[in-house]
Amino acid sequence: MTNEFKKKLGEGGFGSVFSGKLPNNGVPVAVKVLKDSKGSGEDFVNEVGTIGRIHHVNVVRLLGFSAEGGNRALIFELMPNRSLEKFIKSTGSNKSRSSFNWEKLCNIITGIAKGIEYLHQGCDQRILHFDIKPHNILLDHAFNPKISDFGMAKLCSKEDSAISMTAARGTIGYIAPEVFNGNFGTVSHKSDVYSFGMLVLEVIGARRENAVTSSDNEVYFPELIYKCLIQGEELDLELADDGDAQIAKRLAIVALWCIQWYPVNRPSMKEVVIMLEGPSESLIMPPNPFASTTQMDPTTTPSS
């Protein structure tokens, strides 16, 4: 399929990804060759079998897999526009992020939210991703987002309100507080909600009007966003008109709900989708997620 692994697309924590084509019809595919494969492979096959039944417009489709001997590989549909990370990060004068306007960014974020909602509610078993970040959001030819990389995912019953974990999993900067400190609550599907909120804030932060400078006294960007909103100030973002400002404000409010320290304070992904698609006037500001945890009431919810 990969013509002896000639064209490498990228590399991550779980292995390398190569470009290939299906031998029967020539359809372009991405082949991820997993490294450090251990055990008999039974868990790998079971998990792949579950994820292989997922069919959603915002989740990368698994087309096949190989588990021969110690070599294991996953075969996915090829996403020609690579990852969302590529389009929200800039280097030097190359501002590739500008290829998206605010309306398109909102559509992408809403698509990601719908994909996560499907993983949480649309499957026979709830799938917790545990590594939601721009790098794991791939874009198809029309820049529709698709969630990828289920290397850290856990399957659980929809009735399970808490998940037992032997070690923290995820990427620093996106990991929910309860994943590494049980004092904040129990690990659950709300942990993915936190990671989604941090992803949205990163997308917003990439559209800052002024370049981010590294200084000791610079205010943490998400906290700066909260202060601007609560004080009714304009956001320091690239905004063409009032329509852009409304979209940016909506995304910021939703993200701040998602990154509440206590899981009980965060909305479900179904509620997130409603907030993203509903009328702006129905949105209310969340509690301050940056206040001292001793001052926070872990019973507040978006609908209260």
TrEMBL record:
GO terms for cellular component: membrane. It is an enzyme of class 3 (hydrolase). ATP binds at residue 32. InterPro entries: Kinase-like_dom_sf, LRK10/LRL21-25-like, Prot_kinase_dom, Protein_kinase_ATP_BS, Ser/Thr_kinase_AS. It is a single-pass type I membrane protein. Signal peptide: none annotated. Pfam families: Pkinase. One of its GO terms (molecular function) is protein serine/threonine kinase activity. Keywords: ATP-binding, Glycoprotein, Hydrolase, Kinase, Membrane, Nucleotide-binding, Serine/threonine-protein kinase, Signal, Transferase, Transmembrane, Transmembrane helix. Its main location: membrane. This is Putative glycerophosphodiester phosphodiesterase, protein kinase RLK-Pelle-LRK10L-2 family. It comes from Rosa chinensis.
